[in-house]
Amino acid sequence: MHPKKKAILLALCISVLLMLAKFIAYFITHSNAILTDALESIVNVLASGFAFYSIYLATLPKDTNHPYGHGKVEFFSAFLEGTLIGIAGIIIILKSGYDLLYPKPIFQLFEGATIIGATGIVNLIVGYFLIKTGKEHRSLTLEADGKHLLTDAVTSAGLVAGVILIQLTKIYWLDSIVSILLGLYIIYNGYQLTRHSVGGLMDESNTALVNSIIEIMQQNRKDPWIDVHNLRAQQYGADLHIDCHITLPYYFDLNEVHQEISGIDKMINGHTEHKTELFIHADPCLPACCNYCKMKLCPVRQEPFRAEIKWDINNATKNQKHFDQ
């Protein structure tokens, strides 16, 4: 089984067990704050279930209907998880607000806090494991699920602290206040996760990723690579797709052009952690390129080389040669 599938299947099984433990804690205590954590665990189980399915799809090979692969389903998985988290937070706030107006007795808070504390520790360990595995295999779904579990662990820690405070002070309406605060925190994290996934679904530019590609090309720059522009990068699951225009000497024949483009392909794939597919369009140089072209013994140079234009995100991503700026 693929390591990503093993990781998410482990998370799913653990999420089911922790959900049962949290509901046991709620039935022991009748605490709204503990119910908050139990309801979020339902989201954990649903999200892990869909995450398992999305990872199954993402690991399928490309086919006729999906020439870029199935990796984008991971953005949808993260979106669904963020939405479920937000809905859980809203339900928690509504339930806690009602019980703040119409309070009911709570019991055995220390026993409940012990159970919740133990589940928080487990979520912390599993969350870090999922994030580590997600980064190793470049899976947004695993990272999103891991971050969700870390959020759950933080929620559990705050819950335990709140329950202990309630037990010590005997101010039982604090139970609903703690629950409302945790609900707001859960909604915020759901928004963050949803925002990131929507950006991926709409091919929002990944500035850090584009910067790293441009830096690799700049550091390994060769004289025939006169100009690079209209550079764009899209990530589909673990795969990265890059397209750009490269300006080469116009007198290069087709074999030389192919050799330079193949060199760029090998260079980027040798320096990035992603499996990268490149689509490179070759442009012929123009006389206006001469002043920043470093080609030695160029037979058609019309003016001397003056200075190299350093590639950065401001000029390499524009759809124009640098002399047009």
Automatic annotation (TrEMBL):
The keyword ATP-binding does not apply. This is Cation diffusion facilitator family transporter. One of its GO terms (molecular function) is ferrous iron transmembrane transporter activity. It comes from Pedobacter metabolipauper. It is found in: Membrane. GO terms for cellular component: plasma membrane. Keywords: Membrane, Transmembrane, Transmembrane helix, Transport. The keyword Transport applies.
